[in-house]
Amino acid sequence: MNTGNKQPQLAICILEEQTQLTLADLCRACAVHEAQIIELVDVGVLEPLGREQARWRFGGASLHRARMALRLQRGLDMDLAGVALALELLDEIASLRARLRAMGGEY
Amino acid sequence: MEFKDYYKIMGVARDATQDEIKRSYRKLARKYHPDVSKEANAEARFKELGEAYEVLKDAEKRAAYDQLGANWKGGQEFRPPPDWNAGFEFSGGGFTGGDAADYSDFFASLFGRDFRVGGGGGAPFHAKGEDHHAKVLIDLEDTYQGATRTITLRVPGVNAQGHVITRERVLNVTIPKGIREGQHIRLSGQGSAGMGEGQTGDLYLQVEFRAHPLYRVDGRDLYLDLPVAPWEAALGATVKVPTLGGIVELKIPEGSGSGRKLRLKGRGIPGDSPGDCYVILAIALPPADTEAAKDLYRKMAQQLNFNPRAKIGV
Predict the structure, then answer these.
(1) N or C: which terminal CB in chain B sees fewer CB atoms within 10 Å?
(2) Complex-level ipTM beyond the 0.85 threshold
(3) Mutating which of B142, B186, B195 best tests the A interface, going by the most A Cβ atoms within 10 A?
(4) Domains of chain B, with CATH numbers?
């Protein structure tokens, strides 16, 4: 153990690139029941690798996508089809804004 | 504490119907939802709105709130009247939407706080601790070289007397080389402590770049405006270009125009498939501030048969 003000070595990784999550990981990180994550997979908001549910592996980016989907669902009282559409449109807006910014425009 | 004008927050009159309140709430919720809104204070507005709706949608809470009278103004110093709550019986059901822990002191003084009791008796309870989420602002150079940054997090907690306090927590974080804007650094075991024998939660830091004086960023790629002299663009030249990895030489092809995009392959954000650096040419005109310079411009005007507006027909 380190002493005094020294910081212990932190275990660090880039979530989106170096992490895979199981269904249970995702449920815990989002504090929801399995059924809610499965619904997000059913509407295509999350796309796990692996055919059977027991073998599902989610990319690291799924964690924030799922959290955002759940926030939209609760905060705006949306159904899941609406959430899926909103996420697609938000992705598109984000990529257009990034391109606009790269061109030197305001957004 | 400050009085909160829930009607004003909701954008409705004091005599608004429940339907009007609901409609207004839904409209404003879409406007200020932090995942959708680009308003700078969206998160605070959304919370405030949730709190206002919690009161106004509920006939009992609304009636109790109305009893305070119409003379209060938002932001005014407020103490609940001594006979507050007399004659009102809250039938429970109490807290529904949102995260009641976020409600203001004003709300808490009127309606109490909903302290959720975790665990409960019986069998020993184990659960992994909560994850924490925060943002970290870094420089573009940090992702190019990798860097160590000291970040200070404000962590709400409860002290021994049961008061809600904010502690500061300092972490030395290694910024992984090649991380891009919007990605998250995961620090395992740096969230809340678990319950029972449960594991400690994790800390997620969402990366944002500070605006860079030279480069604009799109994913892995960088964009740089490069000023060039008219003769460099017209005749071609090899010029120096600053990149994150140092100065490199770039060949400008003969006959280049303003806005031409040239690619420096692999000179963007590093990674397994590194990004590129796009150089956008911007022709800079030499000032005609001496007789000699004016003469050169006059010569061009006489000797070049050039109409810059030929394409627009004049």
Answers:
(1) C
(2) no
(3) B186
(4) 6-111 (1.10.287.110), 132-209 (2.60.260.20), 215-303 (2.60.260.20)
